[in-house]
Specification:
CATH topology: Deoxyribonuclease I, Chain A
CATH superfamily: Endonuclease/exonuclease/phosphatase
Structural class: alpha+beta
Shape: globular
Distance between the termini: 7 Å
CATH architecture: 4-Layer Sandwich
CATH class: Alpha Beta
Number of helices: 7
Largest sheet: 6 strands, mixed
Number of strands: 14
Radius of gyration: 17 Å
Length: about 260
Amino acid sequence: MRIATFNVNSIHARLSFVLGWLEARKPDAVCLQELKQTTEGFPYEAFRDAGYHALVHGQKSWNGVAVLSRAPAELVEAGLPGAESAGSRLITVRIGEWTIGSVYVPNGKSLVHADFERKLEFLAALRAGIAPMVESGTPYVLGGDFNVVHTDLDSFAPDALRDAMFHTSPERAAIDALLETGLTDLQRNLEPEARSFSWWDYRGGSFHKNEGLRIDLLLGSASAKARATKVWVDREWRKKRDEQTPSDHAPVIADFE
DNA sequence: ATGGCGCAGCCACTGCGA
């Protein structure tokens, strides 16, 4: 079982790019974020032709999440109770014995912006919303763009950016609280010391200078963690330029026994 | 002098992303 998460920064602008990536990596399920597309406007047919089902919680212009899967999936829930005003940022599906969530945590804009407080509220609601999935005991994976640098290892400049956006104590504590429900950061668990970023700014040659952040995570319940054999950032597809430009995020891929 | 990106949209500038 191969499960990935990929913030695509517009499914319209990235369609052929994502299809090429699916062909190359052949994941069984993919959590997508930042579709910038409505549920109705999602390109279902292109993915069906590529062998993938899609369950979508879309939104015009902003946000939007989905889960792609080779096997048919069943919708568990679209949206996060208590956080509807944040936009379409969570979808949970069931694929066989697996429960998979795709989440796009609000950016927060700046420390003094009202959206920063809403980001923390979203993370608190997320903790409450996912707890039943973790407690069920069946393998559960929550993949997404968490928009938080959980530890110093996850930032290219942890000292210079300490207490700056993505690096603050309340944001980090909110990730701790998610993990306290019984989830594990699957990549960090297998690679405790790795500095492996998943996002690089489009500007200023950040990718080539490796000035990135690790903000795209795959969190797994105990039974998912026990089966995970390898988790890696697909940097090649952050660098690649085909007929379409890459997203500013790289896919993160996990393999399970 | 201080940018060098890239999306969407009532579109040629603005808002947003991280």
